[in-house]
Amino acid sequence: MSSHAPLPGHPAEDPAGLPERHFGGPGNMFLSAADDPRGGLGHTGELAVLAAFLRDQRLTLELKCSGLDADALARRPVPPSNLSLLGLVRHLAHVEQSWFRRILAGQDVPYLYRTEADRDTDFNGAVADPQVVAEAWRTWRAEVANAERYVAAGPDLASSVPHGGKRVTVREVLVHMIEEYARHNGHADLLRERIDGRVGE
Predict the structure, then answer these.
(1) pTM reported for the whole predicted model
(2) Which of 111, 122, 139, 149 is the most buried (most CB within 10 A)?
(3) Closest C-alpha to 55, from 41, 38, 33
(4) What is the pLDDT of residues 27-72, one digit of tens each?
């Protein structure tokens, strides 16, 4: 239970059985500063800054999923949406693969979690099965590692590849990836809060 007082107009014990909101660290933090793996500011050079912000967004997704079992990770607490934390992990593995393998590296590999019959397989297939959870994390981490190797090689941010009838630069891809994670981490904030009440940056 939280030591924080409930928000004005919100009783500590909700009659609908909703979890009480609580922070993991002081202030409005999900974790204490000593336990937070995110690096924050202080990087030099545009590529390093973009890579650091993207890394922190990826770590935020992991933090929002931490300590939950398969049932909680697969829970869809906001009907009729099919969003779940597990679905977000699978979706972002697909996004990492699409941009870094298929588009930037030009690899002809099958899409992750997409079929012609169901283009929402990333979310629809996010079921409460420990093996599905383990596979999702393995896949996501493999795609993140591939992307990090690409960035560590020091690509020219202005270099571009064809995409959708136009050309897209490495810089645009990295900025888009930060945007993609930031958007979905907003979803993760709400999903986690609805599961166990835990909130924070």
Answers:
(1) 0.85
(2) 122
(3) 38
(4) 566 666 676 667 766 677 999 999 999 999 999 999 999 999 999 9
